[in-house]
Amino acid sequence: DCDVCGQSFSEKKQFNAHIRVHTGKKPIICDTCGQMFSRRSSLKAHMRIHAGHRPFVCDICGRSFGQKTNLKTHMMIHTGSKSFCCDFCGQKFYRKSHLSTHTRIHTGHNRYPCDVCGQSFSQRSSVNRHMKIHTGEKPFGCDVCGQTFSRNAILHTHMRIHSGYKPFGCDICGQWFSQKRSLTIHTRLHAGHKPYSCDACGKGFSDRTNLKIHMRVHSIEKPYCCDVCGHRFHQVTSLSRHMIVHTELKSFGCDVDMATQNAENTLAVNAKATLKEEGSQN
Known about the structure:
This protein is mainly alpha-helical and 282 residues long. It has a domain at 238-281. The protein is built from 10 helices and 16 strands. The chain has a two-stranded antiparallel ribbon. A two-stranded antiparallel ribbon has the order 3-4. Residues 266-282 have low confidence and may be disordered. It is found in: Nucleus. GO terms for molecular function: DNA-binding transcription factor activity, RNA polymerase II-specific; RNA polymerase II cis-regulatory region sequence-specific DNA binding; zinc ion binding.
């Protein structure tokens, strides 16, 4: 019998596979994408995604899935059913696994701390992976672009950028992603969930990276520089828009110096207009 949940098994092999549910151990790895599993049967079901085999079809919208459990989860979108509820805060989830992950926030069930920074983890293997951040060890290299990674699983995920493979699909709109993290961030857009907020102005973001980019607006940091006129910008998108000024002027036969002067004049006019507008409001 399992000491944790009391479930009984007739074979030791079944018990060993079951106990991984409680320990979180996932020794079985998908060679295609690097995703890890506790059971070989889970890997077998997962491989249908890569093979394009989707035998389970939604009767309502026609969307198909490689696993029956994914179809059941998808059906909750049509029914609005979130049957797994957190006993601490009342938040509801479609999947039990999502509830289990969420519950750790309340219980603080992270028994394995990092000796360097103090961050704690629920699994010893997670600490070992985390330690490579401090050591800088990146033994896994990409044969295409040369980028190196601390984990083989991350390299597998990275390779999808070169292959164009996108195994993670949004159940709501059908958009596909090469990384599970990208799907998670995308899903927040549908839910309107923006967990990362700016301390300066309160603006919310669904992704930590977008928050970091936004914070440059409040700071003096302008890392993106125009090679033509030297003007600097907070974001690369702003630099790209600015470069159109130089491109358009050069297409009409202006030399670089003239393009630079016109760009600077444009910026000066915009600055004066802004000051005039601010003065009229005071």
